[in-house]
Structure to design on (254 residues):
């Protein structure tokens, strides 16, 4: 066998191997008719999404990424890890922002730990289970939404810039930082948080339902509104502009 024949055969074998690996990670869900693409990824602790892609997160033992949707949409979605950050977006030449119903594609993500989530665009982040971490920062730039059911950590920060929404059904931590610039909405139910810092710039709204919390510092700049409910040891507040801080349903226990 000549060297040229060996090279051609080796190239064909390599091509078939790559094709087989790609096919093994993708199948069609018979019940929904969607394409399911399982992506192999190393460990990561942060997620960054660009565009209109929706992410569903679960804390688990091993890192995994699964892209579900119509075949054409699934093929456009890129997922890769760089510097402990899972980056989710559309490949070069594809659209970054979708004007469809938002049901085109979902990315299901699992990791042992999560310390940061960044959404840039109109995509959403959803966590139905518990997130237990040392520190967790959620940053949204644009109109994306974040919905988290249960969060336990030492320090929690949400930084919303734009018109998106953030909702946390249960938060327990030592310190929570809640920052909003723009017209978005933030609603957080927190339990036994020692220090809460709230800063609102713009026309948005923040509602915090506190249970047996420590000190709450709340400040507004602009026309936005802050609503505080529940119980806390002490409240420091200052409204600058036409906005308001409503603490009529907050009981100070000091």
């Amino acid at each position: 066998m000549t060297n040229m024949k060996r090279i051609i055969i080796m190239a064909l074998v390599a091509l078939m191997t790559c094709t087989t690996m790609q096919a093994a990670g993708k199948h069609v869900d018979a019940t929904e008719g969607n394409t399911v693409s399982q992506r192999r990824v190393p460990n990561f602790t942060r997620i960054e999404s660009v565009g209109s892609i929706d992410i569903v997160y679960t804390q688990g033992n091993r890192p995994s990424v699964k892209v579900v949707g119509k075949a054409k949409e699934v093929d456009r979605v890129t997922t890769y890890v760089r510097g402990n950050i899972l980056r989710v977006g559309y490949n070069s030449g594809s659209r970054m922002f979708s004007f469809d119903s938002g049901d085109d594609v979902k990315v299901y993500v699992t990791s042992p730990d999560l310390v940061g989530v960044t959404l840039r665009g109109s995509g959403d982040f959803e966590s139905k289970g518990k997130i237990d971490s040392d520190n967790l920062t959620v940053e949204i730039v644009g109109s994306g939404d974040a919905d988290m059911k249960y969060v336990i950590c030492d320090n929690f920060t949400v930084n919303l810039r734009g018109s998106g929404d953030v909702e946390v059904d249960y938060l327990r931590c030592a310190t929570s930082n809640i920052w909003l610039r723009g017209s978005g909405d933030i609603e957080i139910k927190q339990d036994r948080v020692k220090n809460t810092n709230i800063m609102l710039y713009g026309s948005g709204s923040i509602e915090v339902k506190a249970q047996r919390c420590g000190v709450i510092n709340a400040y507004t700049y602009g026309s936005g509104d802050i609503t505080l409910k529940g119980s806390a040891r002490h409240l420091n507040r200052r409204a600058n502009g036409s906005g308001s801080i409503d603490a009529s349903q907050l009981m100070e226990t000091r």
User: Anything to note?
Assistant: Helices lie at 3-24, 71-76. The domain at 21-114 is CATH 2.160.20.120 (Pectate Lyase C-like).
